[in-house]
Amino acid sequence: MKFIKQEIKLTVENVDPPTSFQKHRYGVLLPNTIHALIVGPSGCGKTNLIFTLLTNINGIKFHNV
């Protein structure tokens, strides 16, 4: 792909209202929106990871699952 600099510019204004601090939905270690796949071979700890994410105070809050 070749990019060509253009003479005419289009300015984009941010019309989103400023957001205030939001409470962490899933804990402080994860973003408020997350999509994830947990994959791996047998015996690598997938179940332990999910259990820890659900039971740890900084993991995923169970009522949001």
Notes on the protein architecture:
By secondary structure, the chain is mainly alpha-helical. Helix content is 15%, strand content 0%. It is flat, with a radius of gyration of 20 Å. It is built from one helix and no strands. The chain has a domain of 41 residues. The chain starts with 45 loop residues before the first helix and ends in a 10-residue tail after the last helix.
A few lines on this structure:
The protein is mainly alpha-helical and 65 residues long.
Question: Which characteristics define this entry?
Answer:
mainly alpha, flat
Rg result: 20 Å
Total beta strand runs: 0
Quaternary structure type: single chain
Helix content: 10-25%
Largest sheet: none
InterPro entries: P-loop_NTPase
Organism: Aphis craccivora
Protein name: ABC transporter domain-containing protein
Topology of helices and strands:
Layout: H1 46-55
